[in-house]
Amino acid sequence: MQIIYQMENKYKSVRPITDNNLPQVFIETYGCQMNVNDSEVVLSVLQQAGYALCDSLEKADVILVNTCSIRDNAEQRIWGRLDVFLQEKKRRKNVIVGILGCMAERLKAELLQHPAVDIVAGPDSYRDIARLVKALDSGEKQINTILSHEETYADISPVRLDKNGVSAFISIMRGCNNMCSYCVVPYTRGAERSRDPHSIVREAQELFDNGYKEVTLLGQNVDSYKWVNPDNPTESVNFAQLLELVALIDPKLRVRFSTSHPKDMGNGVLYTMAMYPNICNHIHLPVQSGSDAMLLKMNRKYTREKYMERVAKIREILPDCAISTDIIAGFCSETEQDHQDTLSLMKEVGYDSAFMFQYSLRPNTKAARHFVDDVPLAEKTRRLNEIIELQNTLSLASNQKTLGKVYQVLIEGVSKRSDEQLVGRTPQNKACVFDAKGYKIGDYVNVKIISCTSATLIAEIVEEATPEGAAKKIDFNDIRNDLKEIGKDLKNIINKEINNLIGSKNDKD
Ligand code: 5AD
Ligand code: SF4
Q: Where is average pLDDT lowest: 39-48, 101-110, 285-294, 462-471?
């Protein structure tokens, strides 16, 4: 693939600036990985405007809270935090409080009525954040919740807020077009748009050059990633191609991605994963429900059968690939049989892990407007508990299958229980704990699994691993390059033949 479209990035700093002489900003982040990455974009913009990061709200001149609206309890937590910020504002008169993210977008001016809030800024207004702070000098509260069809923050290098300096998030797209009936995201994050792939590759390269060993490509539905070159609409990049471009940066850079959508996940992505040992064998494939009636009502656009067909394809192409999921218990009119269908699907797939939730009505979504939230709370809780209990059993069974096997682990931190032990994850995203034996954060090691719980693998280091050496897969790269060469030769032969034909036709004319 040719890279012909280049874009300059304005902000180069990768790590936070801490300097007590500069105005101090404190950022609190709730919700998904995307929000974590958005906070990093906000910090990048503010650092450019002369701010430095501080580690507590008591020291901050500006307190920002990046919010989540996905379920009601996420929003309730934020309201609670606003009361804490109000106390801080009473203590220190000039402190500024800004609400960012999905809740800012959903509630807009309603949030400005809270006495703690000075600024409300939606997910597409982060370039404007320094101006919003400055504009408070006028004495007026400030708001920008305009959603964009183009904004991807492609030219902004996020200032990394992770603790370990090993793994980082890269947003490859924003928004969502899927309109699942229960979900507020299309309303709070707007329409789907894909980011320029060159800026993504450059960001990943910059991270690798700064010592990072793992990137996670983020989008609400990565499989619908599609970038079309505005200068040449015949040139486009899909998700499988983007994944390949990032994987090619270096075999020592691990690549992960989230979230996959069962209706869009094609075989191309699976074959790309099979080709590159540094693309981790883990797919997060939210199912939401095992009942066709519920899937239809949720507007998920696949059936149980179609979902299972995708799972079978993953198993066929990537036999050691972990599959995780999201499940919602007690959606509108869910019957006991629907719930049983979810449990049976979970068993059929044998998920390695899952995020599990009770349905929470979100105002203005299709479900809120057209369906009745009629499963009683106690029943939702019972069903959710059954789902969690089953998943615990499945997670344990999945972990037990790893006993005695050797996995390559990227060391990400020190164990909470002991300084002598390190933690990391297998490609399948399973957390692993093992004795340090002189290794350090950022190293790759091969570990043998000796015991496990449903949440963690206990392991021992068997040898130092180079990612290339530890790769158990066939190296398709050589085959691929050969095929490319053969392709070129074929193209030349065909072109020659066509030219000959045109030549002889012209001769005749
Ligand atoms: N209630 C409960 N869970 C929800 N999710 C999204 N919207 C809701 C809701 N209204 C869950 C879905 C999604 C995950 C990110 O959050 O399972 O995949
Ligand atoms: Fe929400 Fe569905 Fe989009 Fe995920 S794919 S963000 S669940 S609308």
A: 462-471
Q: How far is the centre of ligand 2, averaged over its atoms, from the C-alpha of 259 (Å)? A: 9
In percent, the amount of the chain with pLDDT more than 70 equals 88
d(CA 270, CA 71): 32
Burial (CB count within 10 angstroms: exposed 0-12, middle 13-18, buried 19+), residue 138? exposed
> What is the rounded distance in angstroms from the CA atom of residue 143 to the CA atom of residue 112?
8
328 lines ligand 1 (CB under 6 A): yes
Distance 220 CA to ligand 2 centre (A): 6
- 180 in contact with ligand 2, CB cutoff 6 A: yes
**Continuous segment of H or E residues that includes residue 322:** strand 322-329
Give the ligand at the shortest distance from the Cα of 188. 2
Q: Report d(CA 201, CA 429) in Å as an integer.
A: 23
Q: Is the confidence at residue 418, as pLDDT, over 60?
A: yes
Q: What is the torsion angle, in degrees rounded to the nearest 10, for the CA atoms of residue 358, residue 38, residue 89 and residue 114?
A: -50
Q: Ligand 1 mean position to 440 CA, how many Å?
A: 37
Residues 125-144 have a mean pLDDT of 98
Question: Is the model's pTM score more than 0.85?
Answer: yes
Q: Is 357 in the pocket of ligand 1 (CB under 6 A)?
A: yes
Cβ(362) – ligand 1 distance below 6 Å: yes
The closest alpha carbon to 39, from 96, 117, 123, 106, belongs to 123
Torsion (CA) 184, 188, 193, 198 in degrees, nearest 10: -120
Task: Place 491 in a pLDDT band, splitting at 50, 70 and 90.
Answer: low
Which numbered ligand comes closest to the C-alpha of 332?
A: 1
pLDDT, tens digit (0-9, with 9 covering 90-100), for 376-396: 999 999 999 999 999 999 999
Residue 332 Cβ inside 6 Å of ligand 1? The answer reads: no
List the one residue out of 183, 173, 184 whose CA is nearest residue 223. 173
DSSP 263-293: TT--HHHHHHHHH-TTB-SEEE---B-S-HH
Find the 181 Cα to ligand 2 centroid distance in Å: 9
Q: What is the mean pLDDT of the chain?
A: 92
For the segment 396-400, the average pLDDT, to the nearest whole number, is: 98
Q: How far is the CA of 183 from the centre of ligand 1 (A)?
A: 6
Instruction: State whether the beta carbon of 183 lies less than 6 angstroms from ligand 1.
Output: yes
- Provide mean pLDDT across the span 182-196: 97
Rounded Cα–Cα distance for residues 126 and 98 (Å): 11
Tell which atom from ligand 1 comes closest to the C-alpha of 361.
10
Over residues 225-246, the mean pLDDT reads: 96
Q: What is the mean pLDDT of residues 208-223?
A: 97
| Nearest ligand to the C-alpha atom of residue 288 | 1
- Atom 5, ligand 2: which residue's CA is nearest? 178
98: how many CB neighbours lie within 10 A of its CB? 24
